[in-house]
Design brief:
Blueprint (H helix, E strand, L loop, with lengths): L3 H7 L2 E6 L6 H9 L6 E7 L2 E13 L5 H12 L9 E3 L24 H4 L22 H9 L3 H4 L19
Antiparallel strand pairs: 1-3, 1-4, 2-3
C-alpha cells in the first residue's frame, strides 16, 4: 500500500481533451502509440452540442516536466490522426509541485547598480518652512448675540451684521 508521500509523488498533471468526434479502435491505438498511453478514453458529448458524440481523453501525466509540456505532448499526438481536432481542453486546479532543488538560482534577470554609489551625495538642504494656514480665532460674542436675537440666523446658516464684524484693530477707524 502507498503511504501519503508516495501517493503525492505519483500524482501527475491532470487535464482532459475533448476530441472533435468519436475515435475508432484503430485511432485509439495510434494515439496510445504516439504518446497517450496513460490516457483514459471515454465517450462523451460535445459540450456545445449534446447531440454530437465525441471521445474524451483524461490524462494524469507523471512523466512530463511541466503541465504545459504534458498538454503540448497530447495535442501533438492528436495531430497524428487525420481529421481529428481538439475543440475542448479542461484543466482542473493542480496540486503544488515539489520545491525547486535550486531555490536561489536566478532564471532570468539583470544586475542593477546603485546610482548613489557612483555619484557624490548631494548637499543636504534645510527643510522648507511652510506658511501657516491657521486662521485667527473668530469672535464668538457676535455669533451668540445673533443666535439670541431671533433664533434663525445660527440655525439656517445665514449671516447677520454681528457675525461679520471685523476683529478689533482691522476696521476703518483703527488707524
Amino acid at each position: 500500500m502507498l503511504d501519503d508521500r508516495e501517493r503525492w509523488l505519483s500524482v501527475g498533471y491532470r487535464f482532459s481533451l475533448v476530441l472533435s468526434r468519436e475515435v475508432t479502435e484503430d485511432e485509439s491505438a495510434i494515439l496510445q502509440d504516439v504518446g497517450c498511453a496513460s490516457a483514459v478514453f471515454t465517450t462523451d458529448t460535445l459540450p456545445t452540442n449534446p447531440d454530437v458524440i465525441v471521445t474524451k481523453m483524461d490524462f494524469d501525466d507523471t512523466i512530463s516536466p511541466s503541465l504545459a509540456d504534458a498538454i503540448e505532448s497530447a495535442l501533438q499526438a492528436v495531430k497524428n490522426v487525420p481529421e481529428l481536432t481538439v475543440p475542448g481542453l479542461t484543466v482542473p486546479a493542480q496540486p503544488a509541485g515539489p520545491a525547486s532543488e535550486e531555490p536561489d538560482k536566478v532564471i532570468e534577470g539583470a544586475v542593477v547598480q546603485d546610482q548613489e554609489a557612483d555619484t557624490e551625495p548631494a548637499a543636504k538642504k534645510p527643510p522648507v518652512k511652510k506658511a501657516s494656514t491657521r486662521r485667527p480665532p473668530a469672535k464668538k460674542a457676535g455669533a451668540a448675540k445673533a443666535a439670541r436675537g431671533n433664533g434663525t440666523a445660527a440655525q439656517n446658516g445665514s449671516s447677520s451684521a454681528d457675525q461679520t464684524a471685523e476683529p478689533a484693530g482691522i476696521g476703518a477707524g483703527s488707524d
